[in-house]
Design goal:
Blueprint: E1 6-9, E2 13-19, H1 23-45, H2 54-76, E3 79-85, H3 94-99, H4 101-122, H5 127-138, E4 142-151, E5 156-157, E6 167-178, E7 181-193, E8 202-207, H6 232-255, H7 265-287, H8 295-301, H9 305-316
Antiparallel strand pairs: 1-2, 2-3, 4-6, 4-8, 5-6, 6-7
Length: 324
């Protein structure tokens, strides 16, 4: 029994225009699903901790190719008219009977993670920051002890409330024990608590002992953003994906019509256009181009495109409030 492309029914019977499914429509359709899942997985897993995102761009290119091949193979597939009798009461949901569960599950569980992946790309660090962080981490960057060689100024007591510890700040010359040999570095505005700094005392600063560069950073607070996408916002987003996917599964399983499964120009071409717009908005971030500071806003704007494409397909295919 062939799947339905679209339905126009009366309480007693169903009329369908059936476009037969071929091996090519099945292969290209699953190719689109696998390429989308691969791109989302690479982003959320952090395969590339910072741009350029070669794997993600490769999967996106595969999706575009599979989508084009699916349209061509669908247009070449033969079609014919026939009739079906309705099974069950008049209000039996059509999609659960004829559409099948695979498209419902794929759409319901790919759209929310795709939205989260767009958000994660908007939170990615720049290529320069990522490369610098990777270089420092390889040189064991972190909080390490350093010795005060001498004071480069008089300690100044800071303003503090009566219930806070006393602190002092001044410029210090520190001896940093790098692997290539100790170096003296002048640090401006160093803070110490309870007592002014003295020669010979040990303080903790951030540096990379294995970094041979003479301008290697030495910082009092050198905590760096981790290259990758496991930002606190994206981790919180994973919690929202499960209920969103469950809600979409129920809604699409009840109202999504079979026109979504078989190529229909007024349904799929605008939806693919919205997806293509989202990919274009993500491209500057993926290749590591700042685009005059617009790359991150563009990536955040791309977050609406997966849901917008699904909403268009849902409405124009006869689901939702547009009805049958």
């Amino acid at each position: 029994m062939e799947r339905l492309e679209w339905l126009d029914y009366t309480p007693g019977e169903l009329r369908k225009h059936r476009r037969t499914r071929s091996v090519w429509t099945s292969l290209t359709g699953w190719g689109m699903a696998v390429s989308v899942a691969g791109a989302i997985g690479c982003v959320l897993w952090g395969v590339a901790p910072y741009p350029p995102l070669y794997a993600e761009m490769g999967f996106a290119a595969l999706f575009v190719l599979f989508a084009a091949a699916w349209i061509v193979s669908s247009r070449r597939a033969p079609g014919r008219n026939s009739y079906w009798r309705r099974r069950g009461p008049v209000n039996t949901p059509l999609s659960s009977e004829y559409l099948g569960r695979a498209p419902v599950w794929l759409l319901a569980w790919l759209v929310p993670p795709a939205t989260l992946a767009c958000l994660a790309m908007g939170l990615m660090v720049s290529p320069e920051y990522g490369r610098e962080t990777a270089r420092l981490n390889a040189a064991r960057y972190g909080e390490h002890p350093a010795t005060v060689v001498r004071l480069a100024g008089d300690p100044v007591q800071g303003d503090n409330a009566s219930d806070e510890p006393v602190f002092f700040h001044t410029d210090l010359v520190l001896r940093i024990p790098y692997d290539s040999g100790p170096r003296e570095v002048t640090m401006a505005g160093m803070y110490t608590r309870n007592a002014p700094p003295k020669t010979g005392m040990t303080i903790e600063v951030y540096y990379a002992p294995g970094d041979p560069r003479p301008d290697s950073p030495v910082l009092t607070d050198g905590r760096r953003d981790r290259p990758g996408v496991f930002h606190s916002f994206t981790v919180f987003g994973f919690v929202l994906v499960i209920p969103a996917g469950a809600l979409l599964t129920g809604a699409l399983g009840w109202e999504l019509t079979p026109r979504v499964r078989r190529f229909t120009p007024d349904v799929h071409l605008p939806a693919f256009g919205i997806v293509a717009l989202g990919l274009l908005l993500l491209l500057p971030t993926a290749i590591g181009w700042e685009a005059a500071g617009l790359a991150r806003p563009a990536a955040f704007l791309a977050c609406v495109t997966p849901g917008a494409a699904l909403a268009w397909a849902w409405r124009t295919a006869g689901g939702g409030s547009s009805g049958r």
